[in-house]
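thought: fold this chain, then report.
action: predict
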Amino acid sequence: SSIYCVNACTLKSELATSISTVFFASIADDDLDIYIKSEEWKGVSGGYRLQGLASQFIERIEGSPSGIVGLPVYEFHSILKKIL
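observation:
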C-alpha cells in the first residue's frame, strides 16, 4: 500500500510505499471447508484477516503487518516527520 501526504501550509509532500508478503502453509481440505463455512472471508480484502481464523494458516509475514491490516503505521510516521 502507498501513502501520499501534503502539508497544506508548506506544500511539502511525501510518498511512501509499504510492500508486504504473507506466506500461507498448505491448507488441508477439511480445514479449508471449516474456514469457508465460517464466512469470515466475506467482505475482506484477499479473503482473510491476519487477526482472524486464517492466522492459523500463515507461516510468516515479510514487511509491515499494519500495512496488511490497514494503514502502514511506520511509513505514515516517517512521512509526517518529513513534512511537518
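thought: worth noting. The CA atoms of residues 25 and 57 lie 6 Å apart.
final: C-alpha cells above.
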